[in-house]
Amino acid sequence: MKTARLLRVVVALVTMVSAAGAAGPGPSGGWENITEKLLERVPGYRDGQQWWNKRLGKVHADNVTGDVYVSLCEGWGTYRSLECRDGRVRVEGCNNGRVQMKPIPSRTLTALLLVPLAASALAEGGPAGGGIRDEQGREIVPGGYVTITEDRKGSIRYIPDDYRRMVRMGANFQVIRTALGRLGGWPGKEADPTYLGQLDAMVRMGREAGLKTVFKLVVYGIRPFGNEQWDALWHNSGGSQDALMAAWNKVWIRYKDEPSVFGYDLLNEPQRGLDADYDRCCREHLLPTLRRLADAMHAVSPGKWALYQPLMLSREDRVKGVNPFVPMKEPFGRDRVIFAPHVYHMDLASMTRTLDTYAREAALSHAPLLIGEWGPATPLAVDASPKRQAAFTKVYRMTASALDHRGIGGIKAWFCGTRAPLRSKARPAPFTWAIFSDTDAVGHVERKYITDALARPRPLAVAGHLERYGYDFAARTLEVSLKPDVELGGTVIFVPADRFYPDGFRIEVGLGLVLALKPGDAQLRTLKVAGETGREQARLVHWDADSQHIVIKKWIVAAPGLTVRIAPMTEPAMLPTSFCPFPPLHLRCEFAHRTERGGSPDPPRSVRLRHRPVSAASICPARRQTAPSSARRSVLPDPSQCPPLRPDRAPSRRRPVCPG
């Protein structure tokens, strides 16, 4: 009965807007930039007292024929995937097997504007960042750091141990900020004869550490470089665009056979030049130039990726709180390209809107989305202000969670120290993008209020299809849902045990396999296994302590879907993933707590630590029935788990409560 009602609702919706769209054809190619959208909150249908907000079905646009198909799938937990083959829609894993419906004319696709659009489902069966695969065919989530070859005080030289640190901070990519001037890529600029050797060393160290490399071309070393220079580049005045092309060509030819070089970010943060019309500049100058570069690169290295960025507002045109990048309104029109814009918001609502906009713009060009740089710049004064550090922690955690929720990779600038702080007219106080606070060129002292969000657990490479994933900072729990492929080799998950799991962690694979790593263990041990297949799978799950990677060397069974879950060893097995804001510490934390509407719990206003044996159940009432007797022990307070006592507020005498 419910399925019949849903079908009538969808047919009525389609019929209603078919009439509205009959006056003329819809967008060219049936809006082929939209691969899938979720149908949510269909009017007139309720489940109990709540709107039905589960996956009633999906819309699929066939990029070849332009036809659009609607399908219904009964059952939230059994939905698997949707494909379009030979003009038909196939739904796998539904309670009723396969469902097929007649194609809807593409002009009626405008009806879908009446349905909430889920930006996180722009790629087939997966998130906005999906579609990036490595040479083995595994789906990868790029993440890592911008490595810089120089700052205002001179050259920066990395060593192999720096790359080891990158890997232990969750990187699988480095993005080398490549100086156009040092390549001799601008009229009047001579090439630095040592520069390509410096790039060679960075690529080699990255490869040896297991990192992929992307080169990003920047113009910062050329002074001046303002609107006049950008205009010269767009119009090739004085052969400036040809010089840039020749500089790139040196790099493309040099690394065309280097498998660890993933691609090239063609032009960093381009600006309009002398044309005040941003849309015209994007249409007539930016896109033609980027296409020319992408075509030339693919002629040399057809297997590598071309990354492109949107037009950036000139400084005089920027408005505080508004995204400083111009929307991409036209498809890029090339294959093997990645949309790689930047996100720098402190305002979380603006950040969310920007990510959704970027997802739509990437879909416009059938391109995966990768955030080429993310996270706001850090004023140096924040290093001495716990209150401001808490604000930055919240922004970085929320942005990281938003990226993970959408399946989008992200690169953080910069992996270096703060020896050359920046200043500008808009920011007279010194600031930096560096993630290390010391004045060493490369840097070693982490800004922990930022880096702990950057180095969170996450999947790096999945043999199969990555459906969704996310890390819960409060529970210290990572969940990865995927559809494994037995033919594609290993799955790699980054688990920073030293940072997040000092008491060990356990890994649950599917429903029947549980392994654990306890302090002092060199390898995972099996806690629970079902059958010979489970035992064989357990033998293929390994822990690499140096890289902090869990490596599942091969999937044994091509299951329609499974979930990999990483959780602390001390987490009660019966608890759900909504929890106290602190891990199960065995010490007494008394605090006054506030939870924002619609948000995650804030840090406590005040904290008092009593170093004495207490029960984990006395910290969180939800743990009273599940905390093991071994939880009664005395430990020293971990300052990373409880914030320092505020001097302007007396300790709270309220009993601790477990929110939610």
Quick summary:
The protein is of the alpha/beta class and 660 residues long.
Principal-axis shape: globular
**End-to-end distance:** 35 Å
Helical coverage, percent range: 10-25%
Question: CATH first level of the largest domain: which class?
Answer: Alpha Beta
Number of E-type strands = 34
Most strands sheet = 8 strands, parallel
Strand content: 15-25%
Low-confidence stretches: 1-126, 572-660
Oligomer state equals: single chain
The helix tally amounts to 12
Number of domains: 4
Q: Determine the structural class based on helices, strands and strand pairing.
A: alpha/beta
CATH topology of the largest domain: TIM Barrel
**What is the strand arrangement across the widest sheet?**
16-15-14-13-12-9-21-18
CATH homologous superfamily label of the largest domain:
Glycosidases
Describe this structure in words.
- This protein is an alpha/beta fold.
- It has 4 domains: 2-117, no CATH class; 141-455, Glycosidases (TIM Barrel); 462-568, Golgi alpha-mannosidase II (Immunoglobulin-like, Sandwich); 583-660, no CATH class.
- It has 12 helices and 34 strands.
- Strand 27 and strand 28 (513-517) form a beta hairpin.
Key words describing this protein structure:
660 residues, alpha/beta, TIM Barrel, 4 domains, 8-stranded parallel beta sheet, 6-stranded antiparallel beta sheet, 12 helices, 23% helix, 22% strand, disordered N terminus, disordered C terminus
Write the layout of secondary structure elements.
Elements: H1 2-21, E1 36-38, E2 46-47, E3 50-51, E4 57-61, E5 68-72, E6 81-85, E7 88-92, E8 139-140, E9 143-148, E10 150-151, E11 154-155, H2 160-168, E12 173-179, H3 195-209, E13 212-218, H4 227-235, H5 240-254, E14 261-265, H6 278-300, E15 305-308, E16 337-339, E17 342-343, H7 348-364, E18 370-371, E19 373-374, E20 378-379, H8 386-406, E21 409-412, E22 431-432, H9 448-454, E23 458-462, E24 464-472, E25 477-484, E26 491-494, H10 497-500, E27 505-509, E28 513-517, E29 525-528, H11 531-539, E30 541-544, E31 549-552, E32 562-568, E33 588-591, E34 607-610, H12 616-619
Parallel strand pairs: 9-12, 9-21, 12-13, 13-14, 14-15, 15-16, 17-19, 18-21
Antiparallel strand pairs: 1-4, 2-3, 4-5, 6-7, 8-23, 10-11, 20-22, 23-26, 24-25, 25-32, 26-31, 27-28, 27-32, 28-29, 30-31, 33-34
Helix pairs in contact: 2-3, 5-6, 7-8, 8-9
